[in-house]
Amino acid sequence: MLDIVLPIAFGLVAVAVAMSFWRLLRGPSALDRILALDTLNINTIALLVLLGIHLSSALFFEAALLIALMGFISTVALCKYLLRGDIIE
Amino acid sequence: MLDYLLSFLILFGAIFTFIGSLGLVRLKDFYTRLHGPTKATTLGVGSILIASAIFFSTRGTGISLHEILITLFLLITAPVSAHLLAKAALHLELNSLAKMPTKKVQQEGLEQANQTEVAQQTTEKIEQLTSSDGSQDQELAQKQ
């Protein structure tokens, strides 16, 4: 059962990555691009966790945790820059 | 049985991640577009991480707690980043399908300012009129 479901899940998340990448390239405003980057981070975490289940190795969780941390910090920094014109005041 | 549960959770999470990005592409407005990825974070990645936690806990090497760490972190940070994005969008006054709240506040402020200006002008006019009336009366009295 898991062998059938995992490729479907990989396909769905890969299409999600492609769609958020389209919004990253297309986005009318800078905030749309920031939102697309945030979504790309989340999709990458999902993809890494799925890969960990597929290969049954626990090595990918540190990478997923690092991506989550850096994604949050970069989103907050970019939003602060657009909001105030400066990151650290 | 465990296999079916894992398959259901993985499929559920993948479908929600897909729907989140679909919302990011299809919706018309930044403020509506903000909804999609938040659902993808909480429901999609959350259920995939729960599936992963169950999978690695039943492998035999004890309970795995990495996933709970990632889930907690994502659940804490997703509302914060969404709030900051919405705040920045309101600050930059992006185009919205709905009526913007800031413009309404500005209009009300303008109306109040106009009202106060009109009141000041009327009081000034009344003062001018009364003073001029008084002077005219005095002038008339002097002429007479």
Describe the structure.
The complex is a heterodimer of chains A (89) and B (144). Chain A has 89 residues and is mainly alpha-helical. Chain A is built from 3 helices and no strands. Chain A has one domain. The radius of gyration of chain A is 16 Å and the shape is flat. Chain B has 2 domains: 97 residues; 46 residues. Chain B is built from 5 helices and no strands. Chains A and B meet through α1, α2 and α3 of A and α1, α3 and α4 of B.
Secondary structure elements and pairings:
The complex is a heterodimer of chains A (89) and B (144).
Chain A: H1 2-26, H2 30-55, H3 60-84
Helix pairs in contact in A: 1-2, 2-3
Chain B: H1 2-26, H2 30-33, H3 35-57, H4 66-92, H5 101-143
Helix pairs in contact in B: 1-3, 3-4
- The ordered string of helix (H) and strand (E) elements of chain B is HHHHH
The averaged pLDDT of chain A comes out at 90
Shape of chain A: flat
What share of residues are in beta strands of chain A? under 5%
Supply the key terms.
heterodimer; A: 89 residues; 3 helices; 85% helix; B: 144 residues; mainly alpha; 2 domains; rod-shaped
Short description:
By secondary structure, chain A is mainly α. Chain A is built from 3 helices and no strands.
